[in-house]
């Protein structure tokens, strides 16, 4: 029986728990495929998926650093296909109440002109997902674990809603547990999917800074909300270094146009 390339990629991804380097090494070394194991692993996989060689794979991810070989998903795949419609919003896990309110306000002002992609972490990410849902818009969650896991656990209900009515994706197979190094690595996908990244609040030496670095390397627009002096955020420094200052939804829309 002739094996399909997409099935081989999915098999290797499941076998190696989504570890990009191990999958790459297996491909490079032309690892022998165990057909029985392949069929077993694929039959036990609960998520739908597209691979790097599929026509439906997002064009916006094909040229990022280490593009995912496989994207497992639950929900509406069509949300992911046009980066011009996708805005990334990420930020601090322990955010100030004022910046939580600013995030909610800006999303409301965007009037559902964009789908919002984020990482379903605590703080700004969660607020971004919840706000666009409340505003009857659409959201995309990029996980740092398998789609059968919820991290943080407090977002289990939110994740279920996103998987049902929006879109949740991961390069990690269904039951892969959260791992600290997964999260900064997955951030290249968040910025890669979007035309721009909006930052309501960021601390130095944070996962958000990793996302910003990926966004810059990908040539994406980086937009930052200014902050009060000496409040412990890194927002103003980013604006000083060249990020676009935005204060409301209209500013974001104007940047896109």
Description:
With 257 residues, this protein is an alpha/beta fold. 39% of the residues lie in helices and 14% in strands. It is built from ten helices and nine strands. It has a nine-stranded mixed sheet with strand order 1-2-6-5-4-3-7-8-9, with helices on both faces. The chain is elongated, with a radius of gyration of 18 Å.
Supply the key terms.
9 strands; alpha/beta; 39% helix; 257 residues
Task: Summarize, please.
The protein is of the alpha/beta class and about 260 residues long. The protein has helices at about 5-15, 20-30, 35-45, 95-110, 125-135, 155-165, 180-195, 205-215, 235-240, 250-255, and strands at about 50, 70-75, 85-90, 115-120, 140, 165-170, 195-200, 220-225, 245. Helix content is about 40%, strand content about 15%.
Low-pLDDT stretches: none
As a percent range, the share of helical residues equals 25-40%
| Secondary structural class | alpha/beta
Q: Could you state the oligomeric state of the chains shown?
A: single chain
Cα shape: elongated
In round numbers, the mean pLDDT is 96
Helices and strands, in N-to-C order?
HHHEEEHEHEHEHEHEHEH
* Tally of separate helices: 10
Proportion of β residues? 5-15%
Kindly report how far apart the N and C termini lie. 51 Å
Radius of gyration: 18 Å
Q: Strand order within the widest sheet?
A: 1-2-6-5-4-3-7-8-9
Strand tally, please? 9
For the sheet with most strands, the description reads:
9 strands, mixed
């Amino acid at each position: 029986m002739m094996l399909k390339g997409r099935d081989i990629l999915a098999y290797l991804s499941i076998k190696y728990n989504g570890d990009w380097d191990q999958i790459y090494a297996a491909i490079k070394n032309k690892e022998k495929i165990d057909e029985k194991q392949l069929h077993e692993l694929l039959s036990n996989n609960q998520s739908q998926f597209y691979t790097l060689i599929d026509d439906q794979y997002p064009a916006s991810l094909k040229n990022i650093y280490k593009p995912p070989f496989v994207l497992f998903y639950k929900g509406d795949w069509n949300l992911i296909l046009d980066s011009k419609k996708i805005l990334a919003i990420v930020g601090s896990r322990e955010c100030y109440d004022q910046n939580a309110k600013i995030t909610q306000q800006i999303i409301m002002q965007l009037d559902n002109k964009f789908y919002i992609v984020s990482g379903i972490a605590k703080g700004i990410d969660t607020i971004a997902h919840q706000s666009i849902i409340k505003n009857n818009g659409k959201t995309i969650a990029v996980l740092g674990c398998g789609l059968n896991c919820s991290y943080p656990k407090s977002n289990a209900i939110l994740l279920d809603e996103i998987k049902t009515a929006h879109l949740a994706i991961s390069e990690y197979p269904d039951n892969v547990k959260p791992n600290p190094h997964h999260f900064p690595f997955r951030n290249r996908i968040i910025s890669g999917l979007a035309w721009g990244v909006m930052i309501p609040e960021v601390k130095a030496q944070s996962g958000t800074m990793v996302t910003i670095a990926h966004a810059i390397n990908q040539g994406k627009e980086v937009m930052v909300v200014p902050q009060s002096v000496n409040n412990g955020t890194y927002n103003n420094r980013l604006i000083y270094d060249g990020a676009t200052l935005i204060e409301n939804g209209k500013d974001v829309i104007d940047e896109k146009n």
